[in-house]
Every structure is written in structure tokens, then in C-alpha cells.
Amino acid sequence: MTTVGVVQAKARFGQLLKLVSKGETIRITRRGIPVADLIPSGYRKSKDLKRFVREIREIRKGATLGGLKIRNLIAEGRRY
Questions:
Q1: Dihedral angle over CA of 41, 42, 45, 50, nearest 10
Q2: Among the four residues 7, 14, 20, 21, which has the most C-beta atoms within 10 Å?
């Protein structure tokens, strides 16, 4: 899977479509966080489980809480 930034995707959209038409999947990121996938038309929605788990783990790599702790967020939500 190829990964490109939003600005690159806009500048090279035609080239990316050619790659997708050949069966490649392109992941578009904004500031390193995945926001979209370009997939071939007619792409089978049923994927094998290992690939699905691998893709979710890859997406989670860019997600952070910005130094916050989950316990603090839970406690904050309970106050209201």
C-alpha cells in the first residue's frame, strides 16, 4: 500500500488513479494521520481477517490523545 499526503494526492491525482486502476491501494494522510483510501472499483469488501487487523493497527499508529490520559478523560466525562 502506498501512502501519500493530501497535497501530494492533489498534485498527482491522475498518476494515483492509474496506480489504483492497476489494483494498488493508496492511503491518503493529513499530517501523518490516515484520512482516506483510494481503492480499485469493484474492490471486494470481504477481506481476510489478518489483513483487516493489520490495517486497523496501521491506522491507530497515528492516533494520539495529545498527552492526555484516558482515565482523566473518563473522569472528566463523569462530572457532567
A1: -70
A2: 20
42: left (phi over 0), alpha (psi -120 to 50) or beta: left
Above 70 in pLDDT, residue 70? Answer: yes
The model's confidence at residue 36, banded by pLDDT at 50, 70 and 90, is: very high
Residue 18 has pLDDT above 80, yes or no: yes
- Is the per-residue pLDDT at 74 higher than 70? yes
Angle at 12 between CA 6 and CA 16, to 5 degrees: 95
| Contact assessment for residue 38 and residue 25, using Cβ atoms and an 8 Å cutoff | yes
